[in-house]
Amino acid sequence: MDRGLVGMESDTYALVKSSIKKLLAIDLDYYKDEQMKRRLDSWLVRSQRSSWRDYFHYVASNPEEQQRLRDYLTINVTEFFRDPERWATLKREVLPALLEQSPVGLRVWSAGCSTGVEAYTLAILLDEVAPHRKHWILATDIDRGALQKARAGGPYTTDEIRNLTPQQRTRYIDSKAQNYVRAELVQRVTFREQDLFTDRFETGFDLIVCRNVVIYFTNEAKNMLYRKFQAALRPGGVLFLGGTEIIPHPAEVGLQNFGISFYRKIGG
Question: How open is the CA angle 261-243-128, to the nearest 5 degrees?
């Protein structure tokens, strides 16, 4: 059986994974099988193709369809200050502690930045907490379409900016231009395409933010990423994860709890 929501056969899934890796350079072995199978089943039905072989024959010569598939596989659900309580903790407790150790400015990385709202949230917080210091914000993602929107600074929907205060909207969002962030904020973020599993990481970060990304990955893939993030942090640097993303034994990857959703690199 090659298609249908009744469940993808293992040999069909192996074909799909191989084809996607060859076509898009995305390795689905890092993703949870059942979750990804459901997404792929839905996509095939939506494509109105009779089988995966038929679909890949079609998509091989259709760059626009390749991009649509890439966009669908790289899940982008995001908004400014998503999970506001955790961002309040970052502003109130974590950033001041990091700034004490790095008084000149912070090196910050938004890993899996999607359309850029997380990176711009970081830029807003740093402007509010330490506006005159020389911060460097890196934001990376594998999704080229999302990065294009991020580099343009929008446009963002009303739902995506709903957690901004009236003061933040006035200062950082150009409401007359379909909710684009202002150019001065865009200039504070460096966006790059990156595969978290295969590409090398920069190092020496004070803060790495990777929220609601690893929930889609296998436990083996998560552990690999946690070790890579740990190596990319400076001693005492902090990893900021999503609300449901918990490292069961952080000491095994060189980290320690630093509050809910926060982990600090041991040694600082």
Answer: 65
